[in-house]
Design brief:
By secondary structure, this protein is of the alpha+beta class. Helix content is 17%, strand content 26%. It contains three helices and five strands; from the N terminus they run H-E-H-E-E-H-E-E.
């Protein structure tokens, strides 16, 4: 009879878990989420690709003019990130020389998926 008693008690209590995605999980201030790129700020220096420990950042051809400190230069490459290979260490953001950062970590969850080839451009 103790199983029935416990079952009825549990029916009157609130659930112990958060009903995600119906209820959003509170995100801490220093959370490292999905990686993002501000293409208009990127100067194509490749520092992000060099410091990446998982080598998920590759530089792809993308020639266009970019303004840096009042001067116009021609950017030859831009970064592309394999989303599910990124470990969100933040080194790319730390070593990015632009202000505001051209590559940065957001507060969004990166989610999950079955397509390993998803890239952030």
């Amino acid at each position: 009879m103790s199983v029935l008693k416990e079952m009825f008690e549990n029916l009157t209590h609130k659930p112990a878990t958060i009903l995600y995605p119906k209820e959003k999980v509170p995100i801490p201030p220093a959370f490292r989420g999905r990686i993002a790129i501000r293409d208009e700020k990127c100067i194509g220096c490749s520092k992000c690709a060099v410091v990446c420990p998982t080598q998920c950042i590759t530089m792809v051809a993308n020639e266009r003019p970019v303004e840096v400190k009042g001067k116009t230069i021609t950017r030859k490459k831009k970064p592309e990130v394999e989303l599910f290979a990124c470990i969100r260490c933040g080194l790319c953001e730390e070593y990015c020389p632009t202000d505001p950062k051209a590559i940065y970590l957001t507060n969004e969850f990166s989610g999950a998926g079955t397509d390993k080839g998803v890239v952030v451009k």
